[in-house]
Amino acid sequence: MGVRTTMVFGMARIAVAVGGLALATAASSEGAPKQYTVAMANMNYGALPGAAKVGDTIVWVNKDSVPHTVTARDHSFDLRVAPGQSGRMTLQKAGNFPFYCIFHAMMRGTLKVAAK
Ligand SMILES: [Cu+2]
């Protein structure tokens, strides 16, 4: 009998712990990583996120029928995206990153990444 009482008490403790975790997650959702989508279409990059932060993810969607890349001039990232495919990139460091497509020199942009 003594063992069973302990088991029930243990279950109750777990339930409280899980509830507390859910509450903490909801409270800190403002600082949670965000996901942005940037299209690559008509040989150009779409609108870039203006408030991206370290830890956020950018999904690059290639809507063209040719491959594109998202290549930082300082080589901090180099993503290849096949036609009709998408690729994701998690932002690792803060700064302004000029980038281009290695296949199409006229495709270029600057990704602004704020500190976390
Ligand atoms: Cu390209």
Task: Please provide a written account of the structure.
The chain is α+β, with helices and mostly antiparallel strands. It folds into two domains: 1-32; 33-113, Sandwich (Immunoglobulin-like). 22% of the residues lie in helices and 35% in strands. The protein contains one helix and eight strands; from the N terminus they run H-E-E-E-E-E-E-E-E. It has a four-stranded mixed sheet, with no helix packed on it. A four-stranded antiparallel sheet has the order 5-4-7-8, with no helix packed on it. It is globular, with a radius of gyration of 22 Å. The chain starts with a helix and ends with a strand. Mean pLDDT is 84; it is low at 5-27. It binds copper (II) ion. Copper (II) ion is lined by residues 68, 101, 103-104, 107.
CATH class of the largest domain: Mainly Beta
Tally of helical segments: 1
Radius of gyration: 22 Å
Structural class: alpha+beta
Q: Which whole number gives the mean pLDDT?
A: 84
Bound molecules: copper (II) ion
The CATH topology of the largest domain turns out to be: Immunoglobulin-like
CATH architecture of the largest domain: Sandwich
Number of domains: 2
Strand fraction equals 35-45%
CATH superfamily of the largest domain: Cupredoxins -  blue copper proteins
- The span between the termini is 52 Å
Shape: globular
Query: What is the ordering of alpha helices and beta strands?
Result: HEEEEEEEE
Uncertain residue ranges: 5-27
Characterize the main sheet: 4 strands, mixed
**Strands side by side in the biggest sheet:** 2-1-3-6
Helix proportion range? 10-25%
The number of strands is: 8
